[in-house]
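Q: What structure does this chain adopt?
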Amino acid sequence: MQMFEESRKLRKEFEVWIQDFRKPLWDYCLKLTKNVWDAEDLFQDTLLKSFSHLNYLYQTVSPKSYLFRMATNSWINTVHKQKRAVTVGDEVFETIPAQKTVDPFELAEGFQRMNERLTDLQQAAFILTKGFGFTNKETAEFLSLTEGAVKSLMKRAKDNLNQENQLNIEPNKPVTPLMTAYMEAFNQRNPDKIAELLTEQATMDIVGVSQEYGKDIIRKSSLADWSKDPAVMSGDWILIDGSPVFVVWTDAHALNTIIRIETSDDKITKIHDYYFSQELHDYIASQFNRTSGQNGTFWDEKWKSSI
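A:
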């Protein structure tokens, strides 16, 4: 138990170290993946890998450089494995503080022509320099390249750029009987009914924080805590970027949490609860022109007693 407690303390120190770069990192992940769920997966994977690889560092590094390099490498590895084309849009750049002035004509021309003809590194180099305003030197550091190599990538990338990206939200969502049962149980604040929908070996993934294994543990832990939450909330299913998502709002119309489920044979095998994914919350709430509940991350001071 002492080892577990020490690891949580180290994770808290890590989160303090990177806190100023979480939002730019999440936006960068969205630019790379062009899908909100792939972006969140890449973001969480980057945080986990960045934390777990700290013991391999024997020199001082900047958190920004470290995180962006880790995200870029993880994304390129994923694309190579999946062998899928990845394109990049431009609407999120408006929310990112520019580190230097970007020529709007050059940026517009670039985004109109970016497509699958770009290599992964070309896309990453273009996003970092033209979208985020990083210098060639900083971009070279993120990508583990020389400045000359970055300049070469940029020269080739400028001829092959694509159109803008938008979050795809569909109000006419497909709802299965299992999804309806989950929605009814949730809105009735009934943990027992939700537990009845789970397989015996179901998993609860509180994204970026913890996982619970088995229906009984989930019922006694996260579902019990949720049933005691005094906040007034209700949810509904919406199709976002191709995935049915259970979006939960408070009575003040603020986003409370986002939930996705995996199913098999009319039972839930896994629940992904994005309660502590603040960057994801902010982005999705903005698409509905609503506010996001400031849950923060699990490592924030207000959750100190839970760590």
